[in-house]
Design a protein that fits this description.
The protein has 466 residues and is of the alpha/beta class. The chain contains 19 helices and 18 strands. Bound molecules: adenosine-5'-diphosphate (ADP) and alpha-D-glucopyranose.
C-alpha cells in the first residue's frame, strides 16, 4: 500500500505542535502494517538546511508566483519529498507566522502550493512511485482533493485528518483565480464558507474519508459547542468520518526507570533545575502552548489549592503575551511556582521524567500528547474530560480506585472550581502512597504507542482501495 503524507510540519525538522509528532511517527509505525508512507513537506529554511541537498526530481516552472522544485530527502528510513519554493518558504519565522507574530499574508498560496505539488505527484508519480492514497493533515493539505479533481485524477484516494478544527484555512474569495481553484465549486456544497474560501472545508467535503485524532473528539466535532461552525459540514460526511487515537513514539519517550521509585532522583534534579525547594506535596508540570485552548488561565485560578497542600508547579511554554505575564507573576509571588518561557525538547523530557503529575486542563483537546507522555513515565495526568483526554486517562473516581484501574484524574465541567476539586483530590491521593504507586504502575502499563492505531489506519487505507 503506497501512501503519500501531505503535511506542513514533521519532526525532527519542523514542529509547532503535536501534528509534527504524528506526521513524523506514522511512516515508521505503518511500515510494520504493510503501508509504505512517504512524506511531502514545504522547504522551509530548516528543512532545506537539513534535507535540501538531494537530487531534483521535478521542476515546476511557476507555482503560485515563482519556480519550484521537488527534491528527494530521507528521514529515519522514510522517503521525504521537499517542496523547494523560495518565494513561498525561504524566510525566517514559523511555518505559519512571520517574525511579527502575524500570519504570513500569503499563507493561502503557501499551502495551496503544497497541495498542488502533492496532486501533481498523485497524477504523474515521482521517481517511478505513485501513491494510491494521499494522507492529508489539517487545512494546510485541504485543497489537495480539489486539485486532484481538476487534474482528472480518479484512481488516487484521499484521507483528511483533522488535528484541530480551530484552524480552517480561510482565504478571501478574490483569491479563487490566484489559487487556481474551480469557481464552480465555490458554493455552500463546495469549499465556500460564509463568502470565503475554506481549505479545511474543501478537505472535509472532497476527501474520500475524514478522520480526527480521537474517538471522543470525533463525536464532539458534530456538536455546535466543539464544531466551530463545521459541525454541519462534518455531519454531511458522518458515514465517512472516524476518530483514530494518536500514539507516541515509545523510543523517544522511554522512561529511564521501570519502577515508581526510579523517579526520586529525577524529581530531585528537576526541583534543583527549576530552583524549587523540597516540598511535601506533588511536583506538577505543564508543557504547553500558552493559548486559550489549553485552559491554563483556569490553572492560575486554581493554583492556591495546589500550593496549600504543599504542591508545586513547573511550567514550560510560550504563546499569548497575557498568559506568559500571568505565569511570570505567579512565579514571582509563589516560591512553589517556577516558569520557563520558550521551547525546549530536552527540558520537556526532564519534566515528564521528574514530575509527579502533568496538568492538561484544556477547553478542547483533539487528542493531546503530553498526557500520554505522562502515562508512560508514571507522571499522573490531571485532565479535563474532553477529546482525547477523555479517551486516554482512567479517572481516579471512587469506582476507578476501588477497581484498581485508575491512571489519573479527570474533571468536568472545564472550569476553575472543578479543576480545584481535582487538585485537592490529587493532594489527597498523594497522602496515600500505596494508592498513588498503584496508579503510577497502572499508568506506566497503558499502551500509548502507535501499534493499535497504526493497524486502524492501515485497515482504513485498505478499505479505501478495495
Ligand atoms: P498541540 O499540538 O495542541 O500543541 P499536543 O499535546 O498534541 O498539543 O502536542 C504538543 C507537543 O508540543 C508535545 O510534543 C509537547 O511536548 C510539545 N511542546 C509544547 N510546548 C512545548 C515547549 N514549550 N517546549 C517543548 N515542547 C513543547
Ligand atoms: C493538534 C491538537 C492536539 C493533537 C495534535 C496532534 O495540535 O491540538 O490535541 O494531539 O494536533 O494530532
Amino acid at each position: 500500500m503506497k501512501v503519500l503524507s501531505v503535511t506542513s510540519e514533521c519532526v525532527p525538522l519542523v514542529k509547532t505542535g503535536g501534528l509534527a509528532d504524528v506526521a513524523g511517527a506514522l511512516p515508521a509505525a505503518l511500515a510494520g502494517h504493510g503501508v509504505e508512507m512517504r512524506t511531502i513537506l514545504p522547504g522551509y529554511p530548516a528543512v532545506m538546511a537539513a534535507q535540501g541537498q538531494g537530487p531534483v526530481l521535478r521542476e515546476i516552472a511557476d507555482l503560485f508566483g515563482g519556480p519550484a522544485r521537488i527534491l528527494r530527502g530521507m528521514l529515519d528510513g522514510t522517503v521525504l519529498y521537499v517542496l523547494d519554493a523560495p518565494h513561498l518558504y525561504g524566510r525566517d519565522g514559523t511555518p505559519y507566522l512571520g517574525p511579527d507574530g502575524k500570519d504570513w499574508p500569503d499563507n493561502p498560496q503557501r499551502f495551496a502550493a503544497l497541495d498542488r505539488a502533492a496532486a501533481l505527484i498523485a497524477a504523474e508519480g515521482i521517481e517511478g512511485w505513485r501513491p494510491q492514497i494521499l494522507h492529508l493533515h489539517d487545512w494546510q493539505a485541504g485543497l489537495t482533493p480539489v486539485y486532484l479533481r481538476q487534474l482528472g485524477v480518479r484512481d488516487v484516494r484521499s484521507l483528511l485528518t483533522i488535528h484541530n478544527i480551530a484552524f480552517q484555512g480561510l482565504a478571501p474569495a478574490h483569491l479563487l483565480g490566484a489559487l487556481q481553484l474551480p469557481a464552480h465549486l465555490f458554493n455552500p456544497q463546495g469549499f465556500e464558507y460564509w463568502g470565503r474560501i475554506s481549505a479545511l472545508k474543501a478537505g472535509i467535503v472532497f476527501a474520500d474519508k475524514v478522520s480526527t485524532v480521537s474517538p471522543t473528539y470525533a463525536e464532539e466535532l458534530l456538536t455546535p459547542e466543539f464544531g466551530m461552525g463545521m459541525q454541519g459540514v462534518l455531519a454531511g460526511r458522518a458515514g465517512d468520518f472516524t476518530g483514530i487515537l494518536n500514539g507516541i513514539d515509545l523510543d523517544v519517550w522511554q522512561p529511564p526507570f521501570d519502577k515508581p521509585a526510579g523517579k526520586v532522583p529525577l524529581r530531585r534534579a528537576l526541583r534543583a533545575e527549576f530552583g524549587l525547594p523540597e516540598a511535601a506535596g506533588p511536583l506538577c508540570v505543564v508543557i504547553s502552548r500558552l493559548t486559550g485552548q489549553k485552559g491554563l488561565d483556569l490553572l492560575l485560578e486554581a493554583l492556591p489549592v495546589l500550593l496549600d497542600c504543599g504542591g508545586q508547579l513547573a511550567v514550560l511554554g510560550s504563546g499569548d503575551a497575557g498568559l506568559e505575564a500571568a505565569f511570570r507573576d505567579a512565579a514571582a509571588r509563589h516560591p512553589g511556582v517556577a516558569l520557563r518561557i520558550g521551547y525546549d525538547e530536552d527540558l520537556a523530557h526532564r519534566m515528564i521524567a521528574g514530575g509527579d503529575a502533568i496538568l492538561v486542563p484544556s477547553r478542547f483537546e483533539p487528542c493531546g500528547l503530553t498526557q500520554l507522555y505522562g502515562l508512560r513515565f508514571g507522571t499522573l495526568p490531571v485532565v479535563s474530560l474532553t477529546g482525547g483526554l477523555a479517551d486516554t486517562v482512567i479517572n481516579a473516581s471512587a469506582a476507578g480506585v476501588a477497581a484498581g484501574v485508575a491512571t489519573g484524574l479527570q474533571f468536568h465541567p472545564v472550569d476553575a472550581p472543578a479543576l480545584s476539586r481535582a487538585l485537592r483530590r490529587l493532594c489527597a491521593l498523594w497522602q496515600q502512597p500505596k494508592l498513588w504507586q498503584r496508579m503510577v504502575r497502572n499508568a506506566m502499563a497503558q499502551p500509548v504507542g502507535w501499534d493499535a492505531s497504526a493497524q486502524t489506519y492501515a485497515d482504513l487505507f485498505r478499505t479505501m482501495t478495495d
